[in-house]
Amino acid sequence: MKKKYILEDLDCANCAVKIEEAIKKVEGVKECSVSFITEKMVVELDDNNEKKIEKKIKKVIKKIEPDTTLKAI
User: Fold this and answer.
1) How many CA atoms lie within 13 A of 13 on its CB side?
2) Would you give the distance in Å from CA 13 to the centre of its chain?
3) Residue 22: what pLDDT?
4) Residue pLDDT, tens place only, 31-48
5) Which residues of the chain have pLDDT under 50?
6) Helices 50-64, 13-24: crossing angle, 10 deg rounding
7) Of 8, 5, 10, which Cα lies nearest the Cα of 72?
8) How high is the pLDDT of residue 46?
9) Domain residue ranges of the chain, discontinuous segments joined by +
């Protein structure tokens, strides 16, 4: 299942890369792509436990870039 998100207030391209790499390591994430220019992220998730995986993704983002907000499109 692919999910699309907006990463509001993403500060830099380096942070986008760090977020992408960290989210790829989250259990249940098959693929992740983050664009600093568009502030968009596309994540392919396992169909099971979608809400649980999204919570983990939010924690990863807050750890790397505390001012960035994740919003589903």
Assistant:
1) 1
2) 14
3) 98
4) 999 999 999 999 999 878
5) none
6) 140
7) 5
8) 86
9) 2-72
Amino acid at the residue 38: T
Burial (CB < 10 A; 0-12, 13-18, 19+), residue 20, is middle
Tokens standing for 63?
Answer: 């750890």
The CATH code that applies to domain 2-72 is 3.30.70.100
Q: What is the pTM of this model?
A: 0.91
Instruction: Please give the radius of gyration of the chain, using alpha carbons only, rounded to the nearest integer.
Output: 11
The rounded distance, in Å, linking the Cα atoms of 28 and 48 is 8
Give the pLDDT confidence score for residue 4 in this predicted structure.
97
Tell me the C-alpha distance between 9 and 53, whole Å: 22
Predicted confidence at residue 34, as pLDDT, reads: 97
Count of Cβ atoms closer than 10 Å to residue 57 Cβ: 23
Q: Both tokens of residue 55? A: 């919570």
